[in-house]
Amino acid sequence: MARVSIPIQIRWSDIDGYGHVNNAAMLTLLEEARIATFWNADLPDGSASPTQTLSGGPTAEHFTLVARQEVEYLAPLPFSQRPVRVDLWVSKVGGASLEVNYEVFSPDDVRCAIAATSIVMVEAATGRPRKLSTEERAALEPLLDTPLEFRRR
Amino acid sequence: MARVSIPIQIRWSDIDGYGHVNNAAMLTLLEEARIATFWNADLPDGSASPTQTLSGGPTAEHFTLVARQEVEYLAPLPFSQRPVRVDLWVSKVGGASLEVNYEVFSPDDVRCAIAATSIVMVEAATGRPRKLSTEERAALEPLLDTPLEFRRR
Amino acid sequence: MARVSIPIQIRWSDIDGYGHVNNAAMLTLLEEARIATFWNADLPDGSASPTQTLSGGPTAEHFTLVARQEVEYLAPLPFSQRPVRVDLWVSKVGGASLEVNYEVFSPDDVRCAIAATSIVMVEAATGRPRKLSTEERAALEPLLDTPLEFRRR
Amino acid sequence: MARVSIPIQIRWSDIDGYGHVNNAAMLTLLEEARIATFWNADLPDGSASPTQTLSGGPTAEHFTLVARQEVEYLAPLPFSQRPVRVDLWVSKVGGASLEVNYEVFSPDDVRCAIAATSIVMVEAATGRPRKLSTEERAALEPLLDTPLEFRRR
């Protein structure tokens, strides 16, 4: 229904010798947008917003593994002190996994990258996949939107 | 015909709070394997091996842009002082682009990731794609091998 | 006279296999605090606050080089989605250089690190040091405060 | 008595928008030289060379904490496919700590940085400092050499 828009700060060290955000650093920007949306590691008041339902971080009982990623780099992203905007949504919910889609916009609103991440829910104690709970499914529903179409696949 | 095997050193800072190589750091390992195979930025004797034909680096007249990446994470890659092995080959050569495929093996020979990168040749002066030369095509030929099949696409 | 307090977001990839912000990543957090205070690379309205006087970034005519750094790690800094607070001030202004001091506080207000950076002003065209201008000195004055005392030197 | 020389590979992503190894990435190079010298996390044959006496890594019973670092950047370090050389020695051994000194040389043998790291031995179970053992002291002795003199302190 609705995508969330997450402002993410580029760091000077994300820039490589070509003068743009490095291709691997782009995945770090996506990771930060994902954490801002889904994790709830240590909010000071302990509250969880509807979208902060997938626990994570080093002390969590359940954690999330990245199983697959795909990214198309559409335009070089130069350094800026203004944040990039990562639009993020869920394109699919499976039994023990979900598919996250992203569009990354430069501070000047240039569409720099599109990407998809497959996330698997994992039981920390056993390291094995676990089913998404009814509550988690309900919480993910408002984030559902049409899957990206990748040009180059 | 033949894949090349590149040993790549994991760094302690590649490990994240889950105790494994971070998903974005994995792309940095691929980048280093790619550079070892294709770049010839500053070999002390100026010589180029058959596979070191795509110039790169900050002073090159031509450079290479990463247009797309896809990676499947098959097993967590823990820290080790022994290098990982990145098997690398070319799965396709286009007019101004090529497709690089990789398999990443842990020091204990566990297949940790498979990946593909689409690379576009770019003229540094204009920033526009340029055709692969006959020499470059000839040099890439020995690296041609069957494309990876991704499970989860 | 007054220190500035800069909120800096930790990233998940700043955490290393010990479960805390890596020692080198700490310098990246300081770099981001420094850039937020001193650079004025591309504010959308072109305005410069009194503290944003040292230009920087890839297109600047003048840039700043880090000549020396010293950091004491006082407590491990775990991952948090809440920002750290970097208190930053200028402890000395030289002819072509300045000394920046920092205190880093965890989201739970634990003093995690103290640090100092010596910065040299450089002419981009020649790569040589250049004098701080009268305007730059005037702009740095409000940030002057007592130098840190390092325990372990 | 003798310094060790560790070849360390620069990565393309160590380069920042100024076209040189980033100031924080320099500390990562030092970390890798330190690990190569002191850690013995998972040598396939389980053997320890005389200098590989300080255990480390995520599964170690004892680990090492970086308590302090100091670095002087003497010359910009550009990208190269040839490794840098990090000369490393121990300048002081304390009760539960040691001081490591480094000189970093570019592939063209330019002295790019000098640095010092104070390391504290920590008991993993309690998180508290622990004394260096007689064996560790004996193993560190061959690495002892004159402390660096920093110009700018």
In short:
The structure is a homotetramer of 153-residue chains. Chain A has 153 residues and is α+β, with helices and mostly antiparallel strands. Helix content of chain A is 15%, strand content 32%.
The largest β sheet of chain A comes out as: 5 strands, antiparallel
By CATH reckoning, the class of chain A would read Alpha Beta
What percentage of residues of chain A falls in helices of 4 or more residues? 10-25%
Greatest interface by residues involved: A-B, 27 and 27 residues
Account of the protein in words:
The structure is a homotetramer of 153-residue chains. With 153 residues, chain A is of the alpha+beta class. Chain A has a single domain, classed as Roll (Thiol Ester Dehydrase, Chain A). Helix content of chain A is 15%, strand content 32%. Chain A has 2 helices and 5 strands, in the order βαββββα. The first copy, chain A, has a 5-stranded antiparallel beta sheet, with helices on one face. In chain A, strand 3 and strand 4 form a beta hairpin. The longest helix of chain A has 16 residues. Chains in contact: A-B, A-C, A-D, B-C, B-D, C-D. The interface between A and B is medium-sized, with 27 and 27 residues.
